Amino acid sequence: SSCNFRHDNHQMEPCELSANTVIAHPRALTDKITLIRDAGPSKFQVIADFDATLTRYRVNGLRRQTSHGLLQQGNAYYDAKRQALYDHYHPLEISPVIPIDEKTKLMEEWWSKTHELLIEGGLTYDAIKKSVANSSIAFREGVTELFEFLEKKEIPVLIFSAGLADVIEEVLRQNLDRTFKNVKIVSNRMVFNDDGQLVSFKGNLIHVLNKNEHALDMAAPLHDRLGVDIGEEDEENVNMKERRNVLLMGDHLGDLRMSDGLDYETRISIGFLNDNIEKSLESYRESFDLVYLNDAPMWGALELVSRLFSTEA
Ligand code: TMP
Predict the structure, then answer these.
(1) 44-48 vs 157-164, strand pairing mode
(2) What was the ipTM of the complex prediction?
(3) Active site residue 255
C-alpha cells in the first residue's frame, strides 16, 4: 500500500484510512526521515508510553488492562477501595471541562491515595507476579522485534509511564521472549522491605498530567531523575541528552509532551488512536506524524526504524 515508507524521491502519497495508517504530511515525514538517517543511530532514541501504546488496547474484544488495572493485592478490601477511587477519578481524568490546574490536583490526589492503599494493604512482589500472570495484558505484535532491532543498533528505549514501574517490568519479563538491556522504565517505582512487602515509592510521583514536567529531568542521569543512587550502571544516561533525534510513541495527545525535557532536533511521532476515531482523528493526524488506527501492530514502527538505520544506504 502507499503507507509504506518509500523514498521514491520524496513522492510519498498520503495514506488511505483503510490501511489503518494515516500520514497527514508525507513530505514533512520524509524530510525528517532523511535528517534522522543522516545523523545516524548514535544520535537517536525512542521514547514510548506503555499502556495502550506498547500494549494492545483491546484483547479478545475486551478493554485491555493497564499496569494499575491488572494489580490484585490479594486483599479484596484494598482492591475494592482502589476500584472505588478509579470509579471516582477516572471520569475526572477524561473530563473535557475541568481546568488543567484543578485536574492536576485531582490526579495528584488519586495517585497518592492509590499508592497509600498499596502500601497500607501490604502489597508483595509475589502478588505483582501473580497479577501479571493472571492478567489479560498483551503487547502489540512486533514489540519484541522492534526492541531487538533497536538493541542491535544500540539505541535506547525509554518507557515513560504514569503507571507502576515494577508491574511494567514484570509484564516485560513475563510477556517478551527475553530481556533488553537498552530498555529503561521511568515510572513510579516501589521500595520493598526484606519480607517483600511494599513500604514506599521512590522519587517524585508521576501521574498523567506531569509526565511532561518530569521529562524535564530527562537530560539528567537516571539516578538523579529518580532521586536514588542506583550505582554506576547508568553512565550511559549522561549521553541520552546527546541523542537529540527522537521517535516518540503514545496514545494520547498529552504523550507528545514526553519529549519536553529533551532539546530535540528532529522528532518523529507515532500516535495510536484506539477509540473515538471519528472525534479524534483530525487532531491526531495534525499532531502526530503517523497515526495508527484500530489497535494496529508495531510493524509500522519497526519498518520506520529499519528504514532509518538499515545497513544498506
Ligand atoms: P499511562 O500508562 O498512560 O501513563 O497512565 C496511567 C493510567 O493509569 C491512567 O490513565 C489512569 C490509570 N490509573 C488506574 O487505572 N488506577 C489507578 O489507581 C491510578 C492511580 C491510575
Answers:
(1) parallel
(2) 0.95
(3) no
